[in-house]
Design a protein that fits this description.
101 residues; mainly alpha; F1FO ATP Synthase; 3 helices; 0% strand
């Protein structure tokens, strides 16, 4: 059963790649909306990343206030979390640059 399913998925992937291929002579329809959509996507991602970072810092400061002895561990975890949150905004920016040619 799994071999049949794998074969069906492989055939579908091959068919989709050949059906959705575009040449340079045929630009994508509605290409002017890509930049606007990318800007809205970046704005939403940046805003939500800012809210996530604010919540992370607030929770870390609250944890340090409750247990000052664990300040170093909490601070390290907070910095790693902030780096992951910021990477989401950077990935969104990368996607914007890729699609908004």
């Amino acid at each position: 059963m799994t071999k049949k399913m794998l074969l069906v998925v492989a055939i579908m992937l091959i068919a989709v790649s050949s059906l959705s291929a575009q040449t340079l002579a045929q630009p994508a329809a509605g290409g002017h909306w890509v930049a606007i959509s990318a800007a809205f996507g970046m704005a939403i991602a940046s805003g939500l990343c800012g809210l996530g970072q604010a919540k992370a810092v607030a929770s870390a400061v609250e944890g340090i206030a409750r247990n000052p002895g664990a300040a170093k561990a909490i601070q390290l975890a907070m910095l790693i979390g902030l780096a992951f949150i910021e990477s989401l905004a950077l990935y969104t920016l990368l996607i914007v640059f890729v699609f908004a040619k």
